[in-house]
Amino acid sequence: MTKTPDSAVRSYIAQHQEAFLADLADWLRIPSVSADPDRAGDVRRSAEWLAEKLRGTGFPVVEVWETDGLPAVFAEWPAGEAGVPTVLVYGHHDVQPAAKADGWRTEPFEPTVVGNRLHARGAADDKGQVFFHTLGLRAHLAATGRSAPAVNLKLLIEGEEESGSPNFGALIRRQAERLAADLVVVSDTGMWDERTPTVCTGMRGKLDCQIDLTGPDSDIHSGSFGGAVPNPATTAAELAAALHDEQRRIALPGFYDGIVELTERERELFAKLPFDEAGWLATAKSHGLQGEAGYSTLERIWARPTAEVNGVWGGYTGPGTKTIVPAEAHLKLSFRLVAGQEPERIEQTVRDWVAARVPAGIGHRVHFGSITRPCLTPLDHPALRSTVRAMERAFEQEVLFTREGGSGPAADLRDVLGATVLFLGISVPSDGWHSVDEKVELDLLLKGVEAAAYLWGDLAENHR
Amino acid sequence: MTKTPDSAVRSYIAQHQEAFLADLADWLRIPSVSADPDRAGDVRRSAEWLAEKLRGTGFPVVEVWETDGLPAVFAEWPAGEAGVPTVLVYGHHDVQPAAKADGWRTEPFEPTVVGNRLHARGAADDKGQVFFHTLGLRAHLAATGRSAPAVNLKLLIEGEEESGSPNFGALIRRQAERLAADLVVVSDTGMWDERTPTVCTGMRGKLDCQIDLTGPDSDIHSGSFGGAVPNPATTAAELAAALHDEQRRIALPGFYDGIVELTERERELFAKLPFDEAGWLATAKSHGLQGEAGYSTLERIWARPTAEVNGVWGGYTGPGTKTIVPAEAHLKLSFRLVAGQEPERIEQTVRDWVAARVPAGIGHRVHFGSITRPCLTPLDHPALRSTVRAMERAFEQEVLFTREGGSGPAADLRDVLGATVLFLGISVPSDGWHSVDEKVELDLLLKGVEAAAYLWGDLAENHR
Questions:
Q1: Mind telling me which InterPro entries this protein's record contains (chains A, B) (predicted)?
Q2: Mean pLDDT, residues B354-382 taken together
């Protein structure tokens, strides 16, 4: 039996947490900012540091994988027995840019413990959450007396996530055979808040496009010609305005076809989360709520597809007045997609919809960016149940559910590998991802270690 | 009797046209570009040159009027008899910027005769059309044997028209008593084309505004918040899209209330103009027609009010993708107004309409620019009939009618002075206003001289 006794895990973690935190601090000192070409050497150093540490953890196979950009780290440790699932842990070792001059109270690349918090760029996003797997795995081995994990364990820790993972898709396609897994565990998300442990069950997908509209060959006088020729800025506005109906449902024909609807159980569990609307609005820095009729705010951002105008421009935008019919106008739109929506189909829907609505005399081109697929694991999936049990053992309280409104490369892993995606994360909204004073709560970090220590045994037992 | 014998006018013009053209060329050499602060001295020199020339023409009162910007020229010559109308001629002596490097075939400030055309910046807009009044007035005096014009004649030639006439309103209000007139003759427009003499009967008014919309306090993540908070770029689009209904009628409540509709006679006469749709579209550089249902292109641009998006901007407008709900968005709108529409009422209509449509959570401010009123003289107005007869005698053919789709400061004169506005101009669309290779057709310029010579007598006779 692979079930790990809780007390053994806890005492192992207590004995080793000081060295674990010292190691993490070493890693956090490496400014692995993938967006900054001058930091490419640091991103490589970060990959090599992690590879060395994974070898020290016991992984028999550890490799730094090159890409057309910055390197990823791959590690593998077979269970040594048949009939257990293969699990791939996903995370990233690159970080967002940071400088004390941005307003940090501490040096972002000099990890500093303040009270029960470890402040550093990457403390939560994502080095802390990658690193909890090292001590978690060792606690799992120590408490079970095993010499190898209870599952076939693989890690893929990429180095360009904060730069949009431009080479990730190619990498995993190239290495699909070695990455083959039944389950992907994404440790790059978080929980509801400090007092409410949760498990994320999915991420929305994303499709974005730019629509370029052309009218007259140059800006023309609106007094001489306006009202008799079509105006591309008006067309841009009409397209953007037509995205939604009066119920704030997306009005593109067939847009909702085939989507996986929220279950009643999921809606009930979402409703149990201590959602503070005023606090949420303050975080959003918004002054009002608006969204699809019939859904709560959490449902709208987690489980419903959306269409958003990210940018619009055309005509004269300087001070004062210029009475023109502009020569061109542009829209940047993005769509968040949920399970059941094929991005390729939605792309065609958008193309057809634009073509049908642009009036004679206005030229149009629609350019789509990269696609991110949605992913969703049902509440009753055995592997999700394992994840929930691991978290409940660590936190000793009921675990609720969230989803991610955003979109990540994790879904690519599901598509390429055909794997079920799980999320194991302990970061909280106050951790300051991409902002100043990023931190991780040390208590929660150690709960993450503990949950990771329980997960492999539970999965081996329940996901055969 | 003040009717001027045509042969006497023609022979006087023939005798003096060479000196007239030489004088005009002298004036055109002065680069009176009001938009260029470095040319302020040239604008002043232009005003003084004209003042001197008007003294030479015989005006007993000629003054250079200062403004907070660049100077205007005022001249006055009373008829010396009671019971005749007072007429104020309006034009401008400043010009658009021009440089040979812009693509001119000749030096823009070195007047050059090519075939039957005089090329120079200002040849048509507006020095040529101001200057034809000098020889026209002398021909009128010579042919009638009068020592003063048949009407009380005043001229106001401003120096900032090409810069938006920022000080014109204040000037005419300050000088309203001296400018008092029954009729204003605007010589700053033109005719249909070289073969189709026309008289303009009105100009549309204009109202422009900028609408500033604010959403979240900063750009926020569209994956985390989009679909649950209002997006100011969407609001901007919804406002711009809601300006028109499906018939391309303006959808603001009460927008059309009280407007002076086109008469059947006017529609018939517009329809007689040799309108070449393909040619018009080529001039517009547009690739299609679109406008209010039930009206022709000419009716749409001359006689119907319009609402135009001159500019729109908000959110991310750079390369690639930025998945945000933008913090703000902006619209620049302009409305062309026709007779019967009070700009102040329309301004309030726009304000109310915006306020009613902006959703909770989006802040808005609407800033209006300066107002230009519409003006329109009915086809059967006696003074308009006089203008038409003067043109018909000069051109010896039927004169049709146009309107100006644009908006000019002339309407201010009507409002301040309570005067009826007439238009006397001979410029044609090929003259290249505001463009390279501006020119005036010499034949037409001399027809303008001739029409001006006939007008004062006809008005004195028919507008008592």
A1: Cyt/Met_Dipeptidase, Peptidase_M20, Peptidase_M20_dimer
A2: 95
Minimal CA separation from A132 to chain B, in Å: 25
Residue A1 in this model has a pLDDT that exceeds 50? no
d(CA B189, CA B197): 12
According to CATH, the topology of domain A6-203+374-462 is Aminopeptidase (3.40.630)
CB contact under 8 A, B315 and A310: yes
Find the angle CA(B219)-CA(A402)-CA(A421) to the nearest 5 degrees. Answer: 105
Q: Model confidence over B29-43: pLDDT tens digits?
A: 999 999 999 999 999
Give burial (CB, 10 Å; 0-12/13-18/19+) of A18.
exposed
pLDDT at A406: 81
Q: What is the largest CA-CA distance in chain A?
A: 86
Residue B2 confidence (pLDDT) = 46
| Strand, helix or coil for residue A452 | helix
Asked if A405 and A295 touch (Cβ cutoff 8 Å), the reply is no
Q: Where do we find the tokens 């929660």?
A: A444
φ and ψ of B51, to 5 deg: -60, -45
Instruction: Find, in chain B, the residue whose alpha carbon is nearest to that of A249.
Output: B227
CATH topology assigned to domain B6-203+375-462: Aminopeptidase (3.40.630)
Contact between B204 and B404 (Cβ < 8 Å) = yes
- Mutation for B interface: A218, A222, A316, most B CBs within 10 A: A222
Predicted confidence band of residue B1 (pLDDT cuts 50, 70, 90): very low
Architecture of domain A205-259+305-372: 2-Layer Sandwich (3.30)
For residue A45, pLDDT beyond 90: yes
Judging by beta carbons within 10 Å of its beta carbon (0-12, 13-18, 19+), is residue B195 exposed, middle or buried?
Answer: exposed
What are the angstrom distances between the C-alpha of A216 and each of A139, A167, A220, B248? 69, 40, 7, 18
- In this prediction the ipTM stands at 0.89
Q: What is the pLDDT of residues A404-453, one digit of tens each?
A: 988 777 788 988 999 999 999 999 989 999 889 999 999 999 999 999 99
Partner B contacted by A227 (CB < 8 A):
yes
Q: How far is CA B296 from CA B261, B277, B291, in A?
A: 14, 10, 9
- What residue ranges do the domains of chain A occupy? 6-203+374-462, 205-259+305-372
Give the B window 29-58 contacts with A, CB below 8 Å: none
Radius of gyration of the CA atoms of chain A, in A: 24
Please name which of A216, A310, A381 lies closest in space to residue B290, comparing C-alpha atoms.
A216
Which CATH class, in words, describes the domain spanning B205-259+305-368? alpha beta
Could you say which of A285, A305, A321 has the minimum Cβ distance to residue B369? A321
> Is any Cβ of chain B less than 8 angstroms from the Cβ of A309?
yes
Element (H, E) at B394: helix B382-395
Indicate if the pLDDT at residue A2 is higher than 60. Answer: no
DSSP output for A314-377: EE--SSS---EE-SEEEEEEEEEE-TT--HHHHHHHHHHHHHHHSPTT-EEEEEEEEEE--EE-
Angle formed by the axes of helices A232-242 and A343-357, to 10°?
130
pLDDT digits (tens, 9 = 90+) for B79-138: 999 999 999 999 999 999 999 999 999 999 999 999 999 999 999 999 999 999 999 999
pLDDT at B363: 98
